Amino acid sequence: MKEQDPIVFVIDDDRMIRDGLQSLIRSVGLRVETFASAQDFLGAKRPDTPACLVLDVRMPGLSGLDLQLKLRDDGIPIPIIFITGHGDIPMSVRAMKEGAHEFLTKPVRGQDLLDSVQKALASDRALRQERREANEIRARFESLTPREKEVLELVVAGLLNKQIADQLGMSELTVKTHRAHVMEKTQAESLAHLVRMSEKLKTATRK
Amino acid sequence: MGRRIDAPSVVRAVARYALALALVTLALLISLAFQNSIGNPFWFFFSAAVILSTWLGGTGPGWLAVIYSTLAVMYYFMPPLHRFAVTPRELPYFVTFVACEIGVTQLISWRRHTEDVLRRARDELEVRVAERTAEIKRQMAEQRRTEETLQATRAELARAARITTIGELTASIAHEVNQPLAAVVANADACVAWLSRETPDLAEARSAAERATQGATRASEVIVRIRSLITKATPEKSKVQINQVIEQTAAVAERQAANNHVAIKLELSPDLPVVVGDSIQLQQVILNLVVNGIEAMTTVTDRPKMLILRTEPENKNQIRVSVQDTGIGLTEEVKGRLFEPFFTTRSKGMGMGLSISRSIIEAHGGRLWAESNGSDGATFQFTLPNEDSPGI
Fold first, then answer.
1. Least CB-CB distance to A107: which of B185, B190, B193?
2. What is the distance in angstroms between the CA of the first residue and the CA of the last residue of chain B?
3. Does residue B280 contact residue B236 with C-beta atoms inside 8 Å?
4. Which of A17, A170, A188, B219 is the most buried (most CB within 10 A)?
C-alpha cells in the first residue's frame, strides 16, 4: 500500500469489536489502524493522507465526544463516525452539531459502516483537495504587491478601470498595467476565473 | 361592681371622689332631716354612705367619705353642737363610730382589692388558656403535616428504590449484552466480506468467524452471570405471615392511592397458614401489583376506583393472594405479553415489574398470573406453598 492511500482509524476499548471492525474494513481493501483509547490515538503519528475516524462514544478515560472536541480545538479536521451502544438522542444531537459525519448504533450493520466510511473518506479527500487548492491560490495571491492587491479587490468587486483609477488616484493606464500583472501572477485565465479564485480563498479562510 | 367606666383615668378618679362627697352630703342631709323624728339616725346613713363610697369609688374616696362624715358628725350631731369638738362624755361613742367607719372602709377596700386580683388572675388565665389551646392546635397540625410528609417520603422512597434498582439493572444488562453482540455482528459481517471477495480470503474469514463465536460465548456468559446473580439473591427465607406483609404494603401505598382517589380494601382470611419466603421480595411483588392496579385506574371516571387485596387458602397446600382493580382491564393481546421483560403499556414504564415479580414468585415455588374482569378491570393473583407443604 502506498503512503497516500486513505486510512481508517478505529478507536474502541473492546478488543473483540475493534478486531471485528478492523477486519471488516480491511476486507474492502482499506488501510486500518486501531487504538484502544482516545489518548493512544492522540499520541500516535498520523500520516498526511485522507482519513476518517470510527469512534466508540462510551470509553473509559477520554470519551468519544471529548476527543471530537479536542480534535476540533486543535484544528485537526477529520470526519468522525460515532458508534454508540445506547441510541441516546441528546448525545447524538450534540455530536452531529459538533460536525460528526455519522452516528451509528451498536450493533452496527457491516454494510452501513462501510458505506459511512467510504462517504467520510470521500468527503475528507474533497476537503483536502479544496484546502490544497486554496493554499495554492493563497500563495499566488500573496505574491502580489500591496498596490496590485488593492486593484484586485476593486476588479473583483466589479468596478471598471476608469472607476478604479478615480478611486485609487492613478491613471487608467497604470490600472491596466497592474491588472495585467494580477492576471499573470494569479494565473487567471479570465476575469470570471479570477473572481472564482478570490471567492474560494475567502471561503477557505472563513472555514 | 362589674361596671367599668370608659373614660380617661383622671376624669374617672374625680368622679369617684365627687361621688363620695355627694353620698356623704346626702347622708348628712337625710340625717338632719330625720334628726327630730328618729333620734340619732346618723349612724345608719353615714355608714351607708361610707360603704357605698368605698364600694363604688375605691379606697381613696372611702377614706374621703370617712373623714367627711367624722367631721360632719362631730359638727352637727356631737355635743357641743356646731363646733368641731366632742365632749368627754360623748367621746367613747364618737370614737366607736369613727372606728366602725374606718373598719368598714378597710374591710370593703380589702374585699375590693381581693376581687380585683382575682378578676385579673381569671382574665389572665383565660388569655393563657386561649393561647395554650392555639399552641396545641398548631402543634397538632404540624405533627399531622410531618406525618403526612413522612408517609409520602416513605412511599416515594419505596418506589424510587424499586425503579432505580430495576433501571440500573436494565441499563447494565443492556450494555453488557450489547457489547459482545456488537462484536458478533462486526466479525460475522467481516467474515462474509472476506468470503465475498473475488478470491475469498479463507484465513481472514476463519479468524473473523472465530471472533464471532467468542463474542457469542461472551454474551451467553454475561447472561449466565446475571441469572446466577438473581437466583443467588433469592434465598433470604423465613416464616412469613402474608397478611402482615399485605397490611404493611397497603400502608405504604395508601398515599399514592389517596392521591389517585383509589380506595384500597383488604379482605384477608384470618386463618391462613404461614408461608416460607423473603418478606421483602414478597412485599416488592405486592407493591408492584398494587401500584400497577392504581395506575390502571388513572383514566377511569365512570365507576368507583377500588383496589381489593384478598388472601384465601387455595387448597390444603397453598394460599392465594389476589389484587383486583377496576381499571382499564386487559386486552387479549396485552394479556399474552404481560410478563415479557420490557413489555409495557405505559409511556414511563420500564416493563420489568411483572417479569421480575413472576420470577420472584416462581423462586418461592408459586405461580403468578393475570385475569381480566371483563371490561371492568383486572385481577393479578399468585399462589404460595404453605410452610409444611411437600413442595418446600
1. B185
2. 88
3. yes
4. A17
